[in-house]
Structures are given as C-alpha cells and as structure tokens.
Amino acid sequence: METKIARRPLGKTGLSVSEVSFGAMNLRTLNTLGETDDILNYVIDQGINLIDTARGYNGKNKQGEFVESEVLVGSLLRQRTDIDEPIVVVTKGHGYTLDEFEKDLNTSLAKLGVTGTHNLRIGQTDVRIVYFFHGINAKRWATISTSGVLDKIQELKQAGVINHIGFSSHYGDTKEIKAAVDTGIFEVVELPYNIFNRSLGEDGKLNLLEYIYNKQIGIINMKAFSGNGMPAIYRMLKDLITIDYGTMLNFCLSNPYITTVDAGARLVSEFAADLETAIRPRLTKPQMTDLRSEADKVSKHMHNICRECMHCLEKFSCPQNVNFPEILALYARHTISEQLDRDSSYPAQYRQLDIDSEACIECGACIPWCEYKLDIPKMLKQAHQALGSSV
Ligand code: SF4
Ligand code: SF4
Q: How far is the CA of 135 from the centre of ligand 1 (A)?
C-alpha cells in the first residue's frame, strides 16, 4: 500500500516496518464489530504493515459480545484481497512450558486463520508471523529458559510454522530482558518506554534499547502514552506541562533505537492524529533534553499507580471476583488529584460501584500478573480507606 509513513528495518529479520504500528489490544474495548473493521481497514489503507495482537487480548465489547483480538485481526485480513505486501503480525502467548506453549501457539494460529508453511497467509494476504513469549519476568524466564520451549520455538521457525521469534517484557525486568536477548534467539522485542518513564532507555543503568538495537534486534515500543489509563491521569497533569500526545509520540519516534512505536488507538480519528505526528520532523537532541526536564516535573506523580492496562486480567481472574483494576484506577486518580490539590470526585464514583471492601482475602495471587509489580492487596486496603471509609 502507498504510505507517507517511513519504514525502518526490523532488526535483522529482513523486514521493513512502518515506524508507527497498530496495537490491537484495544479492539476489545470498542462498541461494535463495525468499529473494529473501521479502524483496521484504516490502518491497512494507511500502509501500516505491523499489527500487534496477543492470545490474551480478549474481552467483552460495549455490546457485551466476547471478542478476541486475534480473531478480529484474522477476519479483517481475510476480507481484504488488495494488500500488496506482507503484513507483519505479532502475536503473543503465555505458554512457558512445552505443553502450554504448543497449545497457545496452535490456538493463536487457528484464531488468526494462518495457513501454509514458510510463506504464511491469512486468506489471500501474505503475512509474516512473529511469535512472542508474552511478558517475560523473573519467574517466567526461569521456566522458559529450562522448559525446552526455546528449542521448540526454533524448530517451529525452521519448519516455517512461524517466521520470527520475539518476546515482550516490562519495567523492572531488566535482568531477564538482557538474559533473553543474550541468548541470540530473539529477533524482535516489545518494551515499554515513554517520555515519563525512560528506565529501559537512557535513564537505565544500561540503556537496554541501545544494547538491543546494537544486537540488530527489532524494537517495538509499547506504552508510548504511558499506558491505557493515561487519558484520565493526563487530564489532571496537562495544566502543569506543555507535553501533549503528539509530543509523547514524537519523543518515542525520535529515539534512534526504536524500530516502531505501537499506537493502540481505538478510533480512526485517534490513529489519524498519530499518523499526522509521524510525518512531522523528528525532535532534535536539545529538544529531547528540554522535554525530559518538562516531563520530570510530573513523572513523580505517576509511580506506583494502576494504569488500567488490564494486562493482569488477560489470563487471571480474582478468585474472590474483586475488580481490582477498577478500584485501583480510581485510587490512582484520587491520589494524583490530592497531590495536585485538586477536587476529587473519585470517592463519590467509588461509592457508586458495587464493592464489598472485605472481599479481598489478601491471597496475593494477582500480584505476579501485574505489569507494574503493584502490591495489589495492600493498595486495595489503602484505596478502601482513602475512597470509601464510609462503605
Ligand atoms: S489478593 Fe485480593 S484481589 Fe488479589 S487475587 Fe487475592 S483476593 Fe483477589
Ligand atoms: S493492576 Fe497492574 S496489570 Fe492490572 S491494570 Fe493495574 S497496572 Fe495494569
């Protein structure tokens, strides 16, 4: 497809991908299946050639229909017969033992509707499947590195079942990220980085983005806007800084080590705005330095809060049915409001929720599923105290 969006080499895969890519996680939050097709068609029509999905990106849309991101992406690619270049489809699974890995991978390929070997297709569309281990952390890496899945995934790549191998990870897992890239097996990684949290980049003890780039591994940048919950938090912070969404995106696009920034837009208008930014000139080094100082004025308010990313619920549900992201997200907004000395309507919102403040039995089962390593039971207690002492 014709595109104004520049392409960058995806490490040493031999692929070139658009410097803005499409994160399909939020498809599950749209109102209707029609809206899903609208955004996906727009993405393809703009020449975006990397779509990032995962086995876990499932949920009920606003009409109450259970939707799976992989199914939606596969279905749209099957409908299109006019795509004249391979689409790079990244998908991810939480299988870290041999059995779970093979089950997850086979399910993903079936849900996407991938056919063939080596020259893979979805319908009439040529695709390149990059299969990821989802969310490597200390525990998962201990399993992955000993369970035999690394040998298995290389065999499957050799057999042409998938085309490339990757992993995603998060802040705080730097040791495991480095260990994984040092194996030499991975060709693409997906990591969080943004103007407010540069800990995996230039603010880290080791600039991991630079380290990975120098190994010729492609880097997909997630959380360029600091996570799903950012809009509400940003509304509170935006009076204090001159950084808007376009600046956040351009900051990531201007990082020389990043291959593509994953924009998880929900609506065509949001993605169109991202693409407008992508064709602007990149930031200069002095501009980036100034923006870092600007961002640091507010970034201290953004630590240790729930971002409503919902990753914890992809493979986990609380045995007590505590909707902890919803409660913690209200708590995050309330905390920031207080820090900024703003009026907070969040206690009132909290009281309207149907919450049993005694329901959490502090079993801790949710903690390993939180990308931000939040002490969820402890924070729930704090949230109940701060927001609903009258409940
Ligand atoms: S600690 Fe509380 S919120 Fe977390 S899984 Fe256990 S009961 Fe659910
Ligand atoms: S608890 Fe953690 S993983 Fe879950 S939504 Fe909040 S920040 Fe995301």
A: 20
